[in-house]
Design a protein that fits this description.
It is built from 15 helices and no strands. With 382 residues, it is mainly alpha-helical.
Length: 382
């Protein structure tokens, strides 16, 4: 569900850009407000989890996300871009609480050695949502909107799909409120207990937070620009609704890679897998920036396959050996997801100045740092 919701932004961006006649920089405010919520909500969410535990945290996150989806209805009715951005912020606040709750919970449900593998497997289901979202979004939002925008710019085609999301999120919240999940005592802190150290003192965590920042930023920036990139005359010259369907290949590659990665990470160290995937993404981005036609098109789409294991691997490597500091560490890592707000916005500015294709030089530098983190920065030091 949170994969589906996050990826729908890639459909919303070209749709709202047309409906509100926005520049690339203005359109990227969608990702800025969505991922900006991670920066504001992550640390408070970490404190909330210390009080209520992981399971109740998941329920609270789902309910707030449902409220955010509900706000899309009045935003579309009033044809207000600022209200859309506010709804996205509320929705993302719920998703942030979900991330802070669910990711560390999964790492605790078994031995540390296979934490990367477990988190990669759960993220594969996240990718199932991101794979389905572009196709359904193109079908129910962009297709319906094309004729409307041509006559009278409108954003009302989002109302139906987001009301369906409200119902599904509330149903999930009810299920998580009722089912029995294992209690993890090592992750909770009692009122009288004092933790002397701070997660900020852990070098591999801080460098991991920076890796999450550039990874999420790069992944979101690439996904946000694919529809417009494939519309360029020297690439594929596709209509928006048609180009949006190709997003399925980008996010579908991440899903396939995660199922493969979950098995591979049982045998190979997370750091090596991370460095290999990041280096491959760099090569693909060189082709994306310098080539044209189908070579550039498939190069950018194949980056999804490289992205597959990055988030769960960085997350579990950064939380390694944190013990009681894990809730705080998880909050810091989710704080770093704000990269999804900042890097796409910078790429939007570059696209307005240099053009859409040359703007892809920015994610290239992001993946170079991720390769460094996999090989060197993820080592736990005293």
């Amino acid at each position: 569900m949170w994969g589906f919701i996050t990826c729908l932004n890639d459909i919303l961006i070209p749709h709202l850009k047309a409906a509100f006649s926005l520049s690339y920089t203005q359109a990227m405010l969608v990702q800025f407000c969505f991922f900006g919520a991670y920066f504001i909500v992550s640390l408070p969410a970490g404190k909330l989890l210390k009080r209520i535990g992981y399971q109740k945290g998941i329920v609270v996150g789902l309910v707030i996300a449902a409220l955010g989806c509900l706000l899309f209805y009045p935003a579309a009715s009033s044809h207000s871009y600022p209200l859309f951005l506010s709804a996205l912020f509320v929705l993302a606040s719920g998703i942030t609480i979900l991330q802070v709750s669910a990711n560390p919970y999964v790492t605790f449900l078994g031995p540390t050695k296979t934490a990367s593998s477990r988190l990669t497997l759960t993220q594969a289901f996240n990718s199932l949502g991101t794979t389905i979202a572009p196709y359904l979004g193109a079908l129910f939002i962009l297709n319906e909107a094309v004729s409307t925008v041509a006559v009278n710019p409108s954003a009302e085609s989002v109302q139906g799909p987001y009301l369906v999301l409200v119902a599904m999120l509330l149903l999930l919240a009810a299920i998580f409120a009722l089912i029995k999940l294992p209690h993890i005592p090592s992750a909770t802190v009692t009122e009288s207990e004092v933790i002397g150290a701070s997660a900020w003192q852990q070098r591999h965590l801080v460098l991991g937070a920076l890796a999450i920042f550039v990874y999420v930023g790069a992944e979101v920036a690439i996904g946000s620009f694919i529809v417009n990139f494939l519309g360029e005359k020297n690439i594929a010259a596709l209509e928006e609704a048609e180009a949006a369907k190709y997003l399925t290949y980008y996010w579908g590659g991440a899903m396939i890679g995660r199922f493969i990665g979950a098995a591979a990470l049982q045998k190979v160290s997370g750091g090596k897998v991370l460095a290999f995937n990041a280096a491959t993404a760099c090569v693909l981005l060189v082709f994306t920036v310098l080539a044209s036609g189908s070579v550039a098109m498939w190069s950018v789409l194949l980056i999804g396959l490289c992205n597959s294991v990055m988030f769960p691997t960085i997350f579990s490597l950064a939380l390694n050996n944190l013990g009681k500091l894990t809730p705080q560490g998880s909050g810091i890592l989710c704080l770093a997801i704000v990269g999804g707000a900042i890097i796409p916005l910078i790429q939007g500015v570059l696209a307005d100045i240099l053009g859409v294709q040359l703007a892809f030089i920015l994610p290239l530098f992001c993946y170079l740092y991720i390769a460094y983190y996999g090989l060197v920065g993820s080592r736990v030091t005293a």
